[in-house]
Structures are given as C-alpha cells and as structure tokens.
Amino acid sequence: MLRNLFKTAFRSLNKDRGMATLNVLGLAVGMACFILIGLFVKDELTFDRFHSKVDRIYRGMTLFESGFYMGMPDYLLTTLQERVPGVEAVARIDPRQPAIMDFEGELVFENENYQADQAIFDVFDFSLMFGNEDNALLTDQSIVISAYIMDKYFEGQNPIGQSLKMVGKEHAFLVTGVLNEIPDNSRFKFNFITKAPDSGFNTEQEKWKMSGISYFLTNEGTDLKKLQTEIDAMAKEMAYPYSDQSNFLIERFGDLHLKSDYSVTSSGVAGDIKFLRIY
Q: What is this structure's pTM?
C-alpha cells in the first residue's frame, strides 16, 4: 500500500518537474523560515532568564524630570537590605570604558570592562571555572576575567594568582576568578570585573552619588508595588534631597529585555514584546 503511494507520488512529480521543484523549494523555504522564527522567539523569551532566581531579581533606577540614571544612590543601597523587609542582597554593576592592557610591552584594548560588588554572585548565577564565588571580588586588587581573556593572556592555563596590568591603574590586578561561559542571550558580557569602590559618605555629595546599575535580590513572593512604596518612603525618611524632583523605578529583571523602556544590554540592543506578538 505504502509502496504504491510512493510510486504514484513520483509519477506525479515526473509529469511536471518544474512545478514540482518549485513546490518542494517553497516547502523547504517555508519550513526553514518557521524554524528560524521559532528559534528567534525562543531566544527572546528566554533572554536573561537562565538565572535560577530570575523572578526574585529587580533593577532599581532613578527618574528625573530631565532624564534618568541607571542606578540608585549608594547611601540608599547600603541601607536597603537592612531597612526594607524581603531584600536579601544588593549589588551594583558599573559598565566602564574599555580597558587598556599593558601586555608584554604592548597596549591592548579590551571591551566589556566592568566594576561590581561581591554580591553579584549572590544575586546572579555567574559561576567560575577557576576561583571561588564567595571571595572573588573582596579586594581592590581582585579581578575576575572571562575564558576569552584567559585563553588570550594565559594560553588557557589556570591564571588564579597571576597578575594583569591596566594602564592608568596604580597597582596590578591579581586574577581571582575565571567566568564560565555566559549564554548569548544575556545583557551581561564580561571580559573583566573588578571590585566596585566602597562608598564614602563624608559629604552630602558623596552621600547621594550613584555608581553603577542597581540590582537586588528579594524573598519569594515579594510584591513589586509594595517594594516600590517602601523604597520611596525610605528615601524621604533619609532626607534624599531630590525626592521632589525624582522618583525610583523598580522593575523585574526578567522583564527588562522585552517590557522595559530602559533596557540596557552590552550590545545596546533591546527587545520588544510587541514585535514578538506579530509572530
């Protein structure tokens, strides 16, 4: 029975080979487009969502009448975990200018240079192939590098304890960690992570400065609106001088790529949930 069906099909194809070729090509192109669109949609819907605690991570930023800042005041962040119920960890991630490396007597420019707090390893799932996530960014000399940098500067060998020199820095950095590969659909692409400077609060200017994009990890079941209200109330209680001219925007980390008006990725490309709905 099946054999007869195949024979009939081949006879039909042989009658008009030109039309048959067009039909087969059309079917192949259609299937290829369907698969590519499916892969694209999957990639967009899973963007940044490889972190195990993604539904508990939030980003805080400051909106002013004249613009916005991708972060919150350091003074506010230092007390956030203590004074706002449900906040487990707070971390700043600060994109820096490209690093200029002094390597074997030559100057080498490297992109994806960041400063961050040790707590990024508590908030996000950035694992290390070499080093310890618990103490990778504890000192000003600490530096965590990507596997790409390890291959380029250390020939793929374990570089823990080895030094790297950046132009403009008074001291050399000691490698304390090497990152495992981060998925392509992530807003973070690190080559270097050094320790974010400790905040000093000796003057009003230092007290309310902002240094880096603010992220925090909350308990399960945290209510976003309640969290937003508590942070606004805390800022006024702490006499934040710009309370009347600005407000804080708290957004779920997993929604940033597709739903935020302020999505910032290392590539500079943001997604749009409206675009995906077309498919």
A: 0.86
